[in-house]
């Protein structure tokens, strides 16, 4: 089978096409032939060598954390009826490959009416978006600001907030991304690279600010977005592409703002991954959630995919098609 190998840490160019023996499932395992591999921002960070204190990853390794495809073989103790089924599967690594071997319990069947690429696009961003909007407790008529609104997760969050009855304001970089956020349901959209964008957000709410911020940007932009939260509102920050949003806890307390961090979100999702994936896939199959696949690349162009993400050129979700 073909796979992508990282032989050394570095830029996108270190992603190299490699060949390996076909996989054989062990007891309780299945082999999934991957049709679409998911790419998440964490993949680009790990490839660069970042996060060594948290992820004990050393080259050579196969990057990636799952995708969607068909079960091609089953091991001892696994119901043969799994063979040929369409599934989404998350992995701890090794996702940029034509095959992955996983425990059968880690499979999520893909509902009828949902394509393999769409399922792969929802594998990580879907449960993240569902968990975020659950934690935010969005009510009918709430004013919600979504930052990094044109990313894979951001576009899903915009849709889920709108479905909950919120008035959604999107923040992103550039005209193309702002228009995409409007297409999926944002009423207003502002470029957060322009000076005074927070003032425009406040003006769009009559000067009070928003009830909820769903921050997919993190870093300094996340800190700016916090200033848009109205007294007694909620600030949910899950973005880390520029580091964690810096929020002063004393200021949050004084303004009665409840803050929910990425660590809080991870804690609430613990043990519920398959459930959240299933909910996201079901919402998409029912037409209530639409993943936006902005660009796809063949497996051998994984370096180009990473370069697009790193340059912030990617719209929506980026996938590898095998």
UniProtKB/TrEMBL annotation:
InterPro entries: ADH-like_C, ADH-like_N, ER, GroES-like_sf, NAD(P)-bd_dom_sf. It comes from the Bacteria. Signal peptide: none annotated. One of its GO terms (molecular function) is NADPH binding. Residues 10-320 form the Enoyl reductase (ER) domain. Keywords: NADP, Oxidoreductase. It holds the Pfam family ADH_N. This is Alcohol dehydrogenase, zinc-binding.
């Amino acid at each position: 089978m073909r796979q992508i190998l990282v032989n050394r840490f570095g830029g996108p160019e270190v992603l190299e096409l490699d060949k390996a023996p076909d996989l054989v499932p062990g007891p309780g395992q299945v082999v999934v032939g991957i049709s679409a591999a998911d790419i998440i921002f964490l993949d680009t960070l790990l490839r660069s060598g970042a996060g060594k204190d948290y992820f004990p990853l050393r080259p050579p390794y196969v990057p990636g954390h799952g995708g969607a495809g068909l079960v091609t073989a089953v091991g001892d103790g696994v119901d043969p009826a799994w063979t040929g089924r369409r599934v989404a599967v998350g992995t701890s690594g090794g996702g940029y490959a034509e095959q992955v071997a996983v425990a059968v319990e880690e499979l999520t069947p893909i509902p009828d009416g949902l394509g393999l690429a769409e399922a792969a696009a929802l594998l990580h961003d879907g449960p993240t978006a569902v968990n975020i909007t659950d934690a935010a407790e969005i009510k009918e008529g709430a004013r919600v600001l979504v930052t990094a609104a044109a990313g894979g997760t951001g576009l899903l969050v915009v849709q889920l907030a709108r479905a909950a009855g919120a008035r959604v304001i999107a923040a992103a970089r550039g005209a193309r991304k702002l228009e995409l956020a409007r297409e999926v349901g944002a009423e207003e959209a502002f470029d957060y690279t322009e000076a005074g964008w927070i003032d425009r957000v406040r003006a769009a709410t009559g000067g009070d600010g928003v009830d909820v911020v769903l921050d997919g940007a993190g870093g300094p932009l996340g800190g700016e977005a916090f200033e848009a939260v109205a007294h007694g509102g909620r600030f949910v920050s899950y973005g880390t592409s520029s580091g964690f949003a810096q929020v002063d806890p004393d200021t949050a307390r004084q303004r009665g703002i409840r803050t929910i961090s990425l660590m809080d979100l991870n804690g609430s999702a613990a043990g519920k991954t398959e459930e959240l994936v299933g909910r996201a896939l079901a919402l998409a199959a029912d037409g209530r959630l639409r993943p936006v696949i902005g660009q796809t690349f063949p497996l051998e162009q994984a370096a180009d995919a990473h370069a697009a993400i790193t340059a912030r050129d990617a719209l929506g979700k980026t996938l590898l098609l095998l």
